[in-house]
Specification:
Strand content: under 5%
Largest sheet: none
Distance between the termini: 63 Å
Low-confidence stretches: 1-16, 22-43
Number of domains: 1
Shape: rod-shaped
Order of helices and strands: HHHHHHHHH
Number of helices: 9
Mean pLDDT: 76
């Protein structure tokens, strides 16, 4: 779908440039008189003139696309900051909590986790340690208690994964629908342009050049909104997948720590 919309965008851009050249050039017939030049000059148009002459439907389409763009930019910035902070705090958290657990200082490890609330690893480790600490006073840690810790870790991973994916569905929706919103504006604009040509005395290309160029603007704007949304959606999805792998690995390592601790208690 992305390839199709890109091809449509290139075709639209090329046709727009063709119409601009046709509208800007004077009549090239052998019998054309110099007096026709001023009239030809009047058919020239700029991007400002195109937007100035948009009708209500085209303005509505442009407005919808601008709202999509603002929303997608907000998601991009918010997700980028969230992922950057999670990565930064996790890098600080991992060696500190590993050292605390190596020395069997569970309370210290929990306190370290509480200080890194934006770290996905800290959230997962904290959930497992809290469950582990609840049974720490027992004479031994049974298999059921370890399974309870596993479930706590799985719940934490699921919650954090859902948090990381928040907003990405919006990017996917914008990336897939923005080209079609722009295409709707183009179809409407072309119909309007040909209706104007039907009502005009002259059926030349200049009679519809302005209208068609205005119509193609919406397709171009739709692609401008959609392409970054698709790129960032794929990029952020890859980041989330890597975070999930890191959380799974941390959960496995924590379960290994619980099992080793249980083994030491059973075999002092």
């Amino acid at each position: 779908m992305t390839i199709l919309t890109s091809l449509l965008g290139m075709k639209a851009y090329g046709f727009l440039m063709f119409l601009q050249d046709q509208a800007a050039s004077p009549a090239a017939s052998p019998g054309a008189s110099p007096a026709a030049s001023p009239a030809a000059e009047q058919t020239k148009f700029s991007m400002y003139e195109i937007f100035k002459n948009l009708d209500a439907v085209a303005y509505t389409v442009v407005g919808i696309l601008l709202l999509m763009s603002v929303y997608s930019i907000a998601i991009m910035v918010e997700r980028y900051l969230t992922y950057s902070q999670a990565k930064k705090q996790s890098r600080e958290f991992a060696p500190r909590v590993a050292q605390a657990l190596k020395n069997d200082r569970i309370e210290e490890a929990i306190n370290i986790s509480d200080k890194h609330r934006r770290s996905h690893l800290a959230m997962v480790v904290n959930s497992g340690l809290q469950e582990f600490r609840a049974h720490e006073q027992s004479s031994e840690i049974s298999g059921d208690e370890i399974e309870a810790s596993k479930r706590a870790l799985q719940r934490a991973i699921a919650i954090k994964t859902a948090e990381f994916r928040r907003g990405l569905s919006g990017l996917a929706t914008i990336g897939s629908t923005a080209p079609f919103v722009g295409l709707f504006g183009t179809v409407y604009g072309i119909l309007h342009a040909f209706q104007s040509m039907k009502n005009a005395e002259s059926a030349g290309i200049a009679a519809v050049a302005g209208g068609i160029s205005e119509a193609l603007i919406t397709t171009a704007l739709g692609l401008v909104v959609a392409v970054p949304a698709v790129w960032l959606f794929n990029y952020f999805t890859g980041k989330v997948d890597s975070f999930v792998v890191e959380m799974d690995n941390s959960a496995s390592e924590l379960i290994d720590y619980f099992i080793k601790n249980r083994t030491r208690q059973l075999n002092p």
